[in-house]
Amino acid sequence: MPLSSSPVIRRARLGAELRQLRRRKALTLEQVCGLLGWASTSKLSRIELGQSRPDLADVLDLLDVYQVPAPQRDELIVIARDAATSRGWWRTLGEMHERQRTYAELEAGAASIVEYQPAVVPGLLQSPGYARLRIGAGRLLHPEVDVEADVRARLLRQQVLRRPDPPRYTALLDERVCDGGGVTPEVWQEQLAHLLALAELPHVTVRVVTRAAAPHAGVHPLTGYSRYSFPDPADPRTVMLETLTADVRLATDADVARYERVSDWLASVALDGEETAALLRGRAAGAVDGSRRVGGGDVR
272: alpha, beta or left, given left = phi > 0 and alpha = psi -120 to 50? Predict the structure, then answer.
């Protein structure tokens, strides 16, 4: 069940709109909660910060307090419904943990996605075997991770690229990603073939930034990032940075604009689609040769 919008982004937008309405009425959190009979301000604070899925009845009560007229009221009700997320869609996420859910929500509602990775294949482009190795390696830092459950979740997220109305997806990969360090030849051959197949999709672009490439003024991102834009231009464009323990979401115009500029600089020096495909095919041939040397037999 594809989303028409991203729930996590709609929650952020709804919260910002409600906060602005409260301030226009010169009301404090305490005053609003007192008028509604809410026990504490934490509930309203979480709604305004986009940290919880809102109950539509609560949103309607807030709109009454703020005396919001139509059509603004109708627009905010639509946003609130999107922010709450349909239960049916949440069931399709199954065992996906919270960090995966955040990315799944962003991806499912996005009109376009741009990712840069300096060391690993992005999650949306990973083959099952490669995903299993990457997630398994992560257990060294997070022993509680269920590898097979995380692999299933990652493959579920990838369906966004195969749906009838997919986002425009661009992956900018440092050449180091194409080395396949620490990956067995068989798994790496599968991964490269998977990359080449996805790059054939009309809405998917894969481009490699070679070691010799020199982006504008030598600027290189310090970490990988994912950048999202959405069908509704009023929904905040977003950049996600993944760390070992948490994810950082950037949504101010200034922050997103910086990452847009860096993306443009990287794209200006990256190999084009045909050159990237040629490089990947060459690495795939090397993976086949390596597999034969290691295994002493035919590639499986």
Answer: beta
